[in-house]
Each structure stands twice: as structure tokens, then as C-alpha cells.
Amino acid sequence: MLLHSQPSTVRCLTSRTRELAYRASVTSTRKSLHSLGHIFGRKRGARAMAQTPDAPTFDVPPAPWDPADESITSEDIGNVVSFEHVNLEVPDLEIARLFFCEGLGLTLDPSRIGAQRGGMNVLWMNVGKQQFHICKGPVAQRLPTPGSAIGLVLPNLPAVAAQLEQLRELIGNVKVAYITPEVLQVTDPHGQCYMVHAHSQFPNFAADRGIVYLQLPCFVGTAAEIARFYSTLLGSPIRVRTQDQQQAGQPIQAEVNMGHPGTKLIFQERKELGSTFTEKDVLRLFSGWHMAFYVADFSGTYSRLRPLLFNNHPYKDKVYNFKDALNFHQYRFQDIVQLPASGTLEDRKGGSLPVLYRISHECRSTAHPNFLRCLFNR
Is the bond preceding 61 in cis, omega lying within 30 degrees of 0? Predict the structure, then answer.
């Protein structure tokens, strides 16, 4: 037994000795390299510090910051965090369902039952991270004319065009026309215009589908003041384009940023409406539709808008004080007025402020149960 095990033992001892010797050699080499690297690295660092100038120099000066460059502010938002839905009334919900779901390809919200969405006469249509709320009413509501449009981003324009063509016999007078290969103009049976865009036209829109803008006609000379209202009281970033900045023949307009995912209100001055108007003229443009959005500064916005809050609406969220607003997580206002120089609604000097426009605004807090709710899209 010993005769057979001895060679194996000798081999094991020899292997172990070699391993220890190898490790000792590697350790010694590493220490030597570390010492050399430390010495030479310290010298290189000293030379580099000696050669470093006090301030960097540039062969070409940096490009100036251009505030007119829209790409710089394309992802900025203000107090309005996100735009959620547009609410319209129609006399026939089945025609509306066919138009929005079968035609445009939107999705009937599967996560809310009738009682949760306001009754059986209300449809919620998902379009990306936003919605259309379609309610049954005696008369179809639409954005004011002339020149209004609801801008949509949808992923497949040819499919939308084909689907709407197939629905003509079922839902009546629907107009479909390509303006460009990436823009489809659609008019629903009630005359509301939808401009359907490919996402490539709005690369900063943070969804593959959604409501990218509401184009609204306004009286001549009012676009800038309307934008100032949103900027001062709602804290929305705005961009006003004057006649000098516009291309020949294009109307003066003001854009109001309504937050994520990149929705804008575009107020275009229309010569057809004129520059002389009364409050009755303004109210004639309004059909009763409303839009909903979320704000970060819920209490501050309430304080600034308090004189304009209204409760003459068919919904449950009647707000008479801020406690009511906290209870419902929202409040509503309609009139867009010409602000005094101070920018506050309290400074009326005993009179009412001129009404420039009317939209029913549903202003929500980020504590609202529907904020950031996941929406299913097929």
C-alpha cells in the first residue's frame, strides 16, 4: 500500500511547492509594478497640473441660447402637468362609438363601468394616455367655427382612412381626405374636424397616439391676451406668434402648453370673426364642450381663479369653497378674460373684465383618482 501511495504523495508535494513559488513571484511582480506606477503617475500628475491653464479656452465660441428655437423648450411644462380628456355631447351614442372605435381605432375604456363614468349615457374612449368623453345630449357639441380642429396622433393613417370609408353607410356623412401623406383630415357626421397626424410630425409628443392639439379660432387682436391669461393664472408656458413671424397668409396665433404628453391649445385669430365683438359674440362660439387637465399648484391656482369658478354645470362636483375643491379634487371655470395690468382678477376697479373666450375647464389636482391611471389601447 505504501509503495503505491508514495509516488502520488511526492507528486502532490512537488505540485504544491510550485504553486507557492508561482504565487510568491506574482505577488512580488505586482508590488514592483505598483511602486513604479505610483512614482511615474505622481510625476505625470504633477506635470499635468503644471500645464493646466486657469480657465479653458475655445477655438470657437459656444452657440448663443436662442429662446425662439422651439426645440429647446419642446419638453418643458409648467403648472399644468397633463391634459386628460375632451368632453363632447352627441345625440346618438352608437354613431359616436362606431366613429371613434371602428373608424379612428380608439378603445372603449374597459376599466370603468357605467356608474363610474357618469351613467350609461356616457362613453369613455381611450386614445393613448388621454380620452374622449362622449355623452348623450340633445344637440351635438363641437369646437367653435370657423377653423377649429382636434389634432390627433395615430399610428396607422392608411388603416384609419380605410376604416372610415367602410363606415360611411352606417354613420352618415363622414369626410376623409389626405392633406399630405402624413396628415389625414377627417370630418365626423356632426361637422367636427379632426386632423390625424403621423407621429413623425410631432416627435416630442410622448405617446404613439393621443390628442396633440386643439385648434381654436378667436377674434382678431385677442390671441396674445388669451395666452397671457393662461400664463399668468395657470402657469402654462406660451408662445405667441405675431404677424411678422408668421408666413404670408397665415393667421396670428398663440400656443398654450397643457403639459404631458405634449398637448397644446392653439388660438388662431380669424378675420372672419372680426376685431370688434361683445360678450354675446364670444358666447355664441361656445357650444358647452369641456376639457380636463391636472395642475401641480392646486391651491394656488384655485386662489388665482376663484372669482371665475362656476357651478352651473350638470355634474356632481359643485365647489363653493376650497374644502369642496379638496373633496372633489377639482373645480371648474369657463371664462377667459382680459387681465388688468396687475395680472390679478381681484383688481377689477369696480367693473367686470372683458370676456375674450369661453371654454369649460375641469381643473384637477394630482390627488385625483384618475391621475396617471393606466389606459388600455388595442
Answer: no
Q: Cα–Cα distance between 89 and 136 in angstroms, integer? A: 5
Q: Which of 76, 67, 80 is nearest to 230 (CA)?
A: 80
In the numeric block, the cell 352618415 is attached to 172
Which cell is 54 given?
486657469
* Chain centre distance of CA 70: 15
pTM, two decimal places: 0.80
Tell me how crowded residue 239 is: count the other CB atoms within 10 A of its CB: 17
Integer Cα distance of 311 and 332 in angstroms: 7
C-alpha cell at 232: 399668468
Report how far residue 258's alpha carbon sits from residue 79's, in angstroms, rounded to the nearest whole number. Answer: 9
Listed in sequence order, the DSSP H helices in 52-166 are 93-97, 157-166
- Break the chain into its structural domains and give their ranges: 80-365
Give the C-alpha separation, 230 to 192, whole Å.
25
What is the radius of gyration, based on Cα positions, of the chain?
A: 32
Beta-carbon contacts of residue 319 (< 8 Å; ≥ 6 apart): 309, 311, 325, 328, 330, 331, 332
Give residue-wise pLDDT tens across range 246-296: 666 678 999 999 999 999 999 999 999 988 999 999 999 999 999 999 999
To the question of domain 80-365 being in CATH 1.20.1250.20, the answer is no
> 295 vs 326, 334, 354, CA distance in Å?
13, 16, 25
Query: Which tens digits make up the pLDDT trace of 8-27?
Result: 443 444 555 555 555 656 55
